[in-house]
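Technical note accompanying the year-one report. For the benefit of new consortium partners, we illustrate the data format agreed upon in the data management plan: each record pairs a sequence with a structure-token string. No post-processing was applied to the example shown here.
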Amino acid sequence: MHAGFPRFTNEINQVMQRGFKDDDVSRFFDQAGGRLLAKGMATILKLGFGFVMRDSLLSEEQSQKALAFFNDNFVISDPDAEGGRKYYQGKFLIRTRKPDDDMNVWLKFCPEPEKLFEETASGKELHPLAVVSTEALSEEEAERIEKDPDQVDLVIRFKDSQSIVGLLGRPDVDMVGLLLENLVQMTGNVGHLFKIGAIAANLEQALDLSKL
């Protein structure tokens, strides 16, 4: 069972630690409540996943690196698709089991494929901010989206906001351990967990987060 789950939570946790590294910042989010935590998480996840592609429009070298990362993680060969390829469009809803937390983040990959590339003087270039979309939602919005299979592939539900903030201080986070501790539950297509885990692991390698 342990080998079947990717190190999803560990890599995502390290991405978020990039923004929540300061103890005062962590304490602030712990005290501020779920809504602000959701907004902070949405921003940090978007910046974390977009970091590798941040300079794709600035130089040829960076453009090639960004495109290689994008192709490895988000491009899927499909002879039936236009141009023989399509893009990974997994949709994730991160929530808590405590309703008054108001902690809901909607994470989507390649939500608008037509906006992934933009015309520049040297031709089409990858748009670094179009690869990942994140949004903090109200409880009502999250409830509606969770019930619509076209809007979300996997729901990841933590125990409460405090448990999320608490993970930021743990050096190594394991999904199976969190399941056994009853700190997280998942519903939907668990197969997407493997994909986002692979993306996050590649992100960690690209950023070399272990040195941060």
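Partners are asked to follow this layout when depositing records. The radius of gyration is 17 Å.
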